[in-house]
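retry 2 of 3: previous attempt timed out while embedding 1,3-dihydroxyacetonephosphate. Reduced batch size to 1 and resubmitted. Inputs unchanged:
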Amino acid sequence: MADSRKPIISGNWKMHHNHFEAIQCVQKLHYRLESDDFASVEVTVHPPFTDIRSIQTLIESDKMKIGLGAQNCHWEEKGAFTGEIAPAMLAKLDVGHVIVGHSERRELFGETDDSVNKKVKAVIANSMVPILCCGETLEERQQSMAEAKVQGQVREGLAGLSGEMVSKLVIAYEPIWAIGTGETATAEDAQAMCAEVRQVVREAHGDKAADAVRVQYGGSVKPGNIVELMSQPDIDGALVGGASLEADSFAAIVQYRNH
Ligand code: 13P
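retry 2 succeeded.
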């Protein structure tokens, strides 16, 4: 990994932890982590929307270095969009990172590359960092279509962005067959796909953006496999689901350097 790219490890809590549980989890994580950890790794947690105000207050009052993130947002600034959350509402709560286009949103809630692209732009317009997700299904991998699927998702997700914008964002490669299954891509496969993601950025947005953009791997990341994943040259971090729900296991992942 190039020195200029600070690793970023993010916990995607999905639809887990009410606001009381969320407070406990973040407090425990804060106690487990040392200030040195934050010097070498950026750490973000992405709780459900209903927890965000509580976690914002906690992070602010205890001057925690844990970054606050969200799991989704709408692309419009405001309007008649029942049930949706505007990016500016998140920015107002000191949310710094927003996961966009997670495979669960694409597969279960009909998000398309076009809506994902609008969301990426809206997040950037509100001075937050998108974590753009991409990844193939098992079927696509078996049919040797993994590269084409991911290339298209990255190209279309970033369409219309300047190289300068792309250099600041995060892209998460998450093979769908490895999510919540306990099955991880081998470090070599994960590396190959993360390198592919960077190559797409290089072709569409130039060398500067490709060398600066941070690429996370996601899919059954655990304390036991993080070291090997992070030793790969094109893997700059991890997007962690299940193992981020417990402060102990998430802290062990963040502290991969000490293993
Ligand atoms: P798991 O770590 O539970 O496999 O989830 C990965 C994920 O989808 C993170 O966004």
